[in-house]
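One record is given unchanged without comment:
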Amino acid sequence: MSELKQFRLPDVGEGLTEADIVKWHVQPGDKVKVNQIIVEIETAKAVVELPSPYEGVVSGLLVPEGTTADVGTPIISVEVGEDAGSGGAGPGDAAPAARPPVAGARSDDLIPQPPAEGGTEPGIEGTLAPKEDGERQSVLVGYGVKLGRTTRRPRRAPAGRAAAQAAPEPPAAPAASAVAAADEDGQDAAGAGAAAAVLAKPPVRKLAKDLGVDLARLAGTGPGGSITRDDVQAAATGPSEAAAPARAQPAPVTAVAREERIPIRGVRKHTAAAVAGSAFTAPHVTEFLQIDITETMAATARLRALPDFADVRVSPLLLVARALMVAAARHPMINSSWDEGAQEIVVKHYVNLGIAAATERGLMVPNVKDAHALSLPGLARALAGLTETARAGKATPADLSGGTITITNVGVFGVDTGTPILTPGEAAILAFGQVKDAPWVHEGQLAVRKVTTLALSFDHRIVDGDLGSAVLRDVGAMLEDPLRMLAWS
């Protein structure tokens, strides 16, 4: 006796509404165990690996790679029970869903209708409980997240779809054909004549279109004969005419694409919404201070020689971070947030220190939890580990949430400073510019010193000019003379 279970896309952190399917680790027919990683998804905050809540045989991947799915959407079906994978039919089996998707079928068409009110949804343990507005909700196994009113965004239907739907249903295609459903411009594989036999993921189809490569002329080297990005790039750069069959007419010359369109999704989408919301919600003020940081650079060199820091890279950012936290302890309002709903200012007596990190996926701001309580070696290790995790794309939603104040190290890009945008929910952000040799009056004499520029942006609803100036002066004074950190700590 077997039963078909469906796993719905969960909200993996703080009210996220959608995610991109990055990579499937299983295919129809594969056996899976509970907690086995089955898929990688990219949310607005991080790339997350999802484990299987079931043990059984994968009967279908309901959402192809490269597709954006809403939270609550069924993404995979698994046949569980004693007869799973044996071919026998049981009361819980659903033949259409168990068959691998055919070319040209939309992932929307593979999603079953929700159950009747009061029932139990397939693939979800627990009954549907009523919400206050009368809508039903359910709890996903292992995640504790309630389903919202999410729907898949509509897709354009090309002219070829009607013809494809009117034609007799083709035989079941290999599992790899599930990714040949449709390209990003709405071109259906099954509705385009000769293209029906082409197996290629949507990003590969778009790449072929941009490079002017005819997919029908390529022999795929991927699973099931599917065409890969390498196949397309090889065809675009190699002697394609020599391998092409003879033609009655010369092939038309394909112009180089003058524009490229990049879908706004994942971290880029989240960052755009966050900075736009921050800029037009909190009134920003930015102040600048140029300082002599020679003593801090010397202190950094001495710290590197200490055994306590032998296993970690020490940079001036470590002392900048410590100086900012000491200044926040001296001026607590700088480490606070504005609660519009409660009409209150929330002063944080702890520091979750955010560090802006440039990654391949875009700007991310992971934070060190309770950074104020760490020793200097502990803070150095936490900063190093956090930035490495973020740049590797492994930062979790927890790493990226709950920050109280942020540092952005724009100096690594070779610029003096900038006017940083506040991280939403925080009252201040400090920009640390590049350190460079510059003429400076030191002890009454002109000398070449190590100089940098600090920029502090703050929310003027919370932080007045005198408070912002005091914080910036304190940070500058501690970096000019690191012994002040000991005196003020």
User: Anything to note?
Assistant: Residues 87-196, 240-248 have pLDDT under 50 and may be disordered.
